[in-house]
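If you are new to this repository, start here. Below is one unmodified record pulled from the training split, so you can see the exact layout before writing a loader.
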Amino acid sequence: SGANAYEGTEFMTSTDERFRPVNLYNGPDGALYVVDFYRGLIQHRIYLTSFLRKQVEERGLDKGTGNGRIWRIVPDGAPKAKYDVGLAKATTRELVEKLSDGNGWVRDTAQRLLIEQRDPGAAIVLREAALDPKRPALARLHALWTLEGIVAGIDRATAVAALNDADPRVVAAAVRVAESLIQPVSADADVIARVSSLVKTRTEPAVRLQLALSLGQAKTAAADAALAELVVEAGRQPFLADAVVSGLVGREVAFVATLIATPRAEMNSSEVIRFAISAALKRGDVPGINGALELTAKPSTPEWARTAMLAGVRHFLPRSPDGKSLTGRLPVEPKPLLALAERKDDSGAAAEQLLTQLRWPGKAGADTVVRALTAPEQAQFEKGKAQFAALCVACHQPNGQGLAGLAPSLVYSKWVLGDERILARIVLNGKVQENLIMPPWKAALDDESIAALLTFVRRSWGNEADPVPPAAVAAVRSAVAGRDDPFTEADLLEVARTMRRSRR
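And here is the target side for that same chain:
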């Protein structure tokens, strides 16, 4: 187990303003090697604040490049570095033996070499190592993954045997590599049964989490029954609810129905039910939405489960950056929820409250329903969806709600729903606001790509603004052709005022 090298401080610090540790590696000698960029200025010029520009000029932080360093960190009294550990000319059997080495670098490198060399005879030696209880658990773990890498899929006998390992890390890995044997295209009923049996016999958090992730891949009634049993036993374990629901795409409602019919489900199942109902609604397909709401309102549904399902509907609603629930949109009238709202009890009151935060086509008193996208616009939306997933989701998140201190929410944003020409400026040139920086995309994306991205953002998470044509982006690109700096909030407000004056 690790321990702090020094109490109350980091093990490596510096008062040198050019000190820039950017990466670290374990070395073959057991030392920690830290790559120091050693540079005063890293930011791109368009992201420099006026304060930082002044500091750069006064202190020459943009000078003295090319002075990077590598630090070697070792405990007090460590022996002199020894770099040749004999792996370059090692035989296959010698490399397998190195999987038991106490140095992580040596184990990782031996594993890499074994996979790269792909010696046909390595599989036999690795199977022996993976199943040898006398070897350290980490050695068995490395051998198991190395074997999976060499043969592109674990063999049945090794996977089944590894499922009985004494160490939970090895068992969790065995469950993971056994996925190739339990997926629908090559499902082995006996392997599914053996993996499912671990729900009853292994209680370690690492094994349970991997079971939650892997059992959903089988997509069989037996595997889903085992998954439901796992939820009953350990549904409150951290991350387990997310793991379970991640493998239920298209089967959320059926799984919840199975779960609530399972004895003792009430104690640990609420979070899984909440996530599953929310996921069914977020997928946006009418059968899934109707199924989720019908199960929620079904008279035979236990009240504890109904409460969790209604919480799932609430979880479906988009949220503002401060956590306030916003209006959610459904593609179909939520008839089961309307019927439930007629009840004179807590569930009816909760349903009635949720209905005030939902919109659907034809809802009385709602604003005019936004027009449907044309076929070309829908194709543009789908292209923008793929681009958002590739370029924007890390900061703005899949739900568009952003991350505090990194990126603002796009849900009901005044810039997203406002004039498309201002939003185009933000994407083309970037935007700075206090410590938040939106990078410019004008060099990387053409007009059609930016228009697709903006169309997706303006029609997602409850946003209902018009799609953006490529010609509008082209006009903005021409208007800002001479500008390199990102826009500030004040810049954009001034642009908006100018546009309003020009329309008078």
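Two things worth knowing about this chain: The mean pLDDT is 89. Residues 126 and 147 are 6 Å apart (CA to CA).
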